[in-house]
Every structure is written in structure tokens, then in C-alpha cells.
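Standup notes
- DV: blocked on the single-chain target, sequence here:
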Amino acid sequence: MTTQRTRHSERAETTERAEELAPIPTKLLLRAEEAASVMGVSRSRIYELMRQGSLPRIHIGRSVRIPTQAVQAWVTLQADVQSRQMEA
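- DV (later): unblocked, structure below
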């Protein structure tokens, strides 16, 4: 019985880790909540980034969507900027 429980708990841990490291959704456009979840920030921060012009947005009727590629580009840009700052 102990080995079955151990295997089950190991599987559960592996599944939890996989969920934590889930890839960016394959959607072309994300809602603010989805972008916030992917980036690990609050929804308010996403709206702030859009207001600042740092994160592009697309209006579809009254809805606002963020291109997935824009999220990826923003993260890459921020990583580059921070690595340059650390080198200086």
C-alpha cells in the first residue's frame, strides 16, 4: 500500500509542476485576465501596461484583447533591459 501511495503522490507532484510551468496559451489573442495569469502579474497591472502603451491591445467591439506575441515580446524586452542594467 505504501508504494501505491508514493507513486500516486509522485504523479500528483509531477502534474502540479507541469501545471505551474504550463506554456503560454496557443490563442492568438488573450483577455487581460489570461495575460495576467501567463505573466504572473495582476489584471490591474495589465491594464496599466496597456494605458502606458507598453503592451499593445486590440479592440473587438467593446472587448479588449492582447496579442499573445505582444506578451512574449514584452517579456523578452524586459529580460533584455534588466540584463543590460545588471551588466552596467
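- Follow-up: Helices lie at 2-20, 32-39, 43-52, 68-87.
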